[in-house]
């Protein structure tokens, strides 16, 4: 996945879009993704 795709997920969450269950464990596994939270 490109960086643009990764940055879109946190932005969608702020808008209130439903978060895919597959993305939750992915964000926990990646320390880089934790920076968005």
UniProtKB/TrEMBL annotation:
Molecular function terms, GO-annotated: D-cysteine desulfhydrase activity
Keyword Lyase part of the UniProt annotation: yes
Keyword line: Lyase
Enzyme class: lyase
Species name: Klebsiella pneumoniae
EC number: 4.4.1.15
Listed name of the protein: D-cysteine desulfhydrase
Highest taxon in the source lineage: Bacteria
